Amino acid sequence: MTSTDTEASGVHPRFAEALRELGLEELISRVRRFPEATRTAAEAAAAIGCELSQICKSLIFAADGVPVLVLMDGASRVDLELVRRELGVDKVTRARVDVVRETTGYAIGGVPPFGHRTRTRVLADRSLLDHDLVWAAAGNPHTVFPMEPKTLVAHAGGTLVDVREQIA
Fold first, then answer.
1. Integer Cα distance of 25 and 163 in angstroms
2. Is-contact 116 22, C-beta < 8 A?
3. First to last CA, the chain
4. Cβ–Cβ < 8 Å for 115, 69
5. Is 124 helix (H, G, I), strand (E, B) or coil?
6. Could you tell me how far CA 75 lies from the centroid of its own chain?
7. What is the pLDDT at residue 9?
8. Is the Cβ–Cβ distance between 111 and 138 less than 8 Å?
9. Cβ(48)–Cβ(67) under 8 Å?
10. How far is it, in rounded angstroms, from Cα 129 to Cα 164?
11. What are the CA-CA distances from residue 127 to residues 78, 92, 136, 149 (Å)?
12. Which of 46, 43, 72 is nearest to 158 (CA)?
């Protein structure tokens, strides 16, 4: 696939290159592009026609100031205290918009689970494994791609954890 084909599919060039490097170039043709942005998990699920929990959110947090990526199903929220304990740090906060872009190379709403500008620690919530297929951002808020969750976590270099906020 040429760079022109990649652009036509709507795949972010950095993400397309990451797919090639991982031997996953065939995924480029499976990327879905939507005319309207799908910045939230709910918007993405509605556009795809899947369950909200089948969306894989890629969220950047600051753990004692160091960026960490948390992969979470679209129907759940991250429990920052569980992330803090998992990482053994003093404080976990949402990363600032500029930190997300500097760390990943992508804007919030389009951050894929891998193919980032810098290497970060990755935590993947086990809830992603509840599905045979999940959908994740493909580098911009208009695109998503499907992947089997265990494969996605493996390519992201993620550690399976339980960091989902429990609803009382």
1. 31
2. no
3. 49
4. no
5. strand
6. 14
7. 57
8. no
9. no
10. 13
11. 11, 21, 14, 10
12. 72
Count other C-beta atoms under 10 Å from residue 91's C-beta: 10
To the nearest 10°, report the CA torsion of 116, 164, 89, 111: 10
Give pTM, 2 decimals. Answer: 0.91
The pLDDT tens digits along the chain (168 residues) read 444 444 445 788 999 999 999 999 999 999 998 877 677 888 889 889 999 999 999 999 999 999 999 999 999 999 999 999 999 999 999 999 999 999 999 999 899 999 999 999 999 999 999 999 999 999 998 899 999 999 999 999 999 999 999 876
How open is the CA angle 52-100-16, to the nearest 5 degrees?
A: 70
Secondary structure element (H or E) that encloses residue 159, with its range: strand 159-161
Inter-residue contact 75 to 45 (CB < 8 Å): no
What pLDDT, on a 0 to 100 scale, did the predictor assign at position 11? 82
| φ/ψ bin of 127: left (φ > 0), alpha (ψ from -120 to 50), beta (otherwise) | alpha
- Look at residues 61, 55, 159, 155 and name the one whose alpha carbon lies nearest to residue 113: 155
3-state helix, strand, coil in the chain (%, to 5): 35, 25, 40
Give residue 168's pLDDT. 66
